[in-house]
Design a protein that fits this description.
The chain is of the alpha/beta class. It has eleven helices and ten strands. Helices cover about 35% and strands about 15% of the residues. The strands form two sheets. A five-stranded mixed β-sheet has the order 1-2-3-4-5, sandwiched between helices. A five-stranded parallel β-sheet has the order 6-10-9-7-8. The protein is elongated. The two termini are about 40 Å apart. This is Rhodanese domain-containing protein. InterPro entries: Rhodanese-like_dom, Rhodanese-like_dom_sf, ThiF/MoeB/HesA, ThiF_NAD_FAD-bd, Ubiquitin-activating_enz. One of its GO terms (molecular function) is URM1 activating enzyme activity. It is found in: Cytoplasm, Cytosol.
Length: about 290
C-alpha cells in the first residue's frame, strides 16, 4: 500500500509513466531532478494542481534531451534535491501539506540560490487528468516518447558516415599535423576537468544561440587555420564532446552557419568523443 510517489528517474518515458500511474490511481507525485549544477522540485497531481502532462502534453524530441549520463551532474546536487523531495513527502504524509503543488522550486548550485516559479494550473484539455481524458490506462511510453526508458548514455545517430571520423582516424590527422580546427563543444565546467590541448572550447549552447562573442572567436580561429593551408579548400573542423552526441548536433549547426555566419568549413564529428579517446587512444586521459 502506498499513498505518495517520489519520482527520481532520469529519462522522459519513465516520467510520463509515473505521472500517468499517479493520476489514474489518485496519488500525489513528488518529482525532483538534477543536471550539472542545477536542480528542480515540484509536486504533481496534488490538491487540484497540474500533472506532468498538463505542463508537457507532448514529449520533447529525443535528441534535445540531456540526462545525467550525457551531461553530468555535481554529486551534491541530487543529494540536496533528494532531501527537499523527502521533506515534501513527509509534509504531505503528516498532513501539513506541500507548497509545491503549483510551484517549481529551482536550485542553482553555482550561485547557491533558490527561486520559485508559479506553474500554470491544471489543464482541462490534459490527456490524462483533463475533463475528457484520452489516456485511461498505461501505454507504451517508449513508443510515445520515441526514446528508451533508460538512464544509460544515449547514442545518437544524426549524421552520415562521411560526416564522422573515429578517434583512431583523428589521431592520425593529429600525428600528420594537417591544418585543422578541433572544436570542443562541452560546457566549460567539463572542459576544466579535461580536454585535448589543441582544442577550442565553444559550448554547443553558444553555437545554437549564435553567441556573438564566441562566433567571433570561432571566425578568428578558422581564419588562422586558413592561413596555414596551402590550398583554397574548405577549413576542416573536427568536433568533439564527451560521448559523441552533442558533437553531432554541433556539426549540424556549423553546416547551417557555413558560408554565411562563418567562413566555409567542412565539419565532422569525432565518434564516441573524449571517452572513446580515453579508451582507445590514451588510457591516461581522465574519464568522468
Amino acid at each position: 500500500m502506498y499513498n505518495i510517489v517520489a519520482d527520481c528517474s532520469d529519462n522522459v518515458p519513465t516520467r510520463y509513466l509515473v505521472n500517468d500511474a499517479c493520476v489514474l490511481s489518485g496519488k500525489p507525485l513528488v518529482s525532483a531532478s538534477a543536471l550539472r549544477m542545477e536542480g528542480q522540485l515540484t509536486v504533481y497531481n496534488y490538491r487540484g494542481g497540474p500533472c506532468y502532462r498538463c505542463l508537457y502534453p507532448k514529449p520533447p524530441p529525443p535528441e534535445t534531451v540531456t540526462n545525467c549520463s550525457d551531461g553530468g551532474v555535481l554529486g551534491v546536487v541530487p543529494g540536496i534535491m533528494g532531501c527537499f523531495q523527502a521533506l515534501e513527502v513527509l509534509k504531505i504524509a503528516s498532513g501539513q501539506g506541500s507548497s509545491c503543488g503549483q510551484q517549481l522550486l529551482m536550485f542553482d548550485a553555482q550561485d547557491v540560490k533558490f527561486r520559485s516559479i508559479r506553474l500554470r494550473p491544471k489543464q482541462a484539455s490534459c490527456a490524462v487528468c483533463g475533463e475528457n481524458p484520452t489516456v485511461t490506462h498505461l501505454v507504451d511510453y517508449e513508443k510515445f516518447c520515441g526514446s528508451a526508458a533508460t538512464d544509460k548514455c544515449r547514442r545518437l545517430n544524426l549524421l552520415s558516415k562521411d560526416q564522422r571520423v573515429s578517434v583512431q582516424e583523428y589521431k592520425s590527422i593529429m600525428d600528420h599535423t594537417a591544418a585543422h580546427l578541433l572544436l570542443d563543444v562541452r560546457p566549460l565546467v567539463e572542459v576544466d576537468i579535461c580536454h585535448l590541448p589543441t582544442s577550442l572550447n565553444i559550448p554547443l549552447s553558444s553555437l545554437e544561440n549564435r553567441n556573438s562573442e564566441h562566433i567571433h572567436v570561432l571566425k578568428e580561429r578558422i581564419g588562422q587555420v586558413k592561413e596555414q593551408m596551402s590550398s583554397e579548400s574548405q577549413v576542416p573542423v573536427y568536433v568533439i564532446c564527451k560521448l559523441g552526441n552533442d558533437s553531432q548536433k554541433a556539426v549540424q549547426v556549423l553546416e547551417r552557419m557555413s558560408g554565411s555566419e562563418v567562413d566555409c568549413v567542412t565539419a565532422k564529428d569525432i565518434c564516441g568523443g573524449l571517452m572513446a579517446w580515453a579508451q582507445k587512444i590514451d588510457p591516461s586521459f581522465p574519464q568522468y
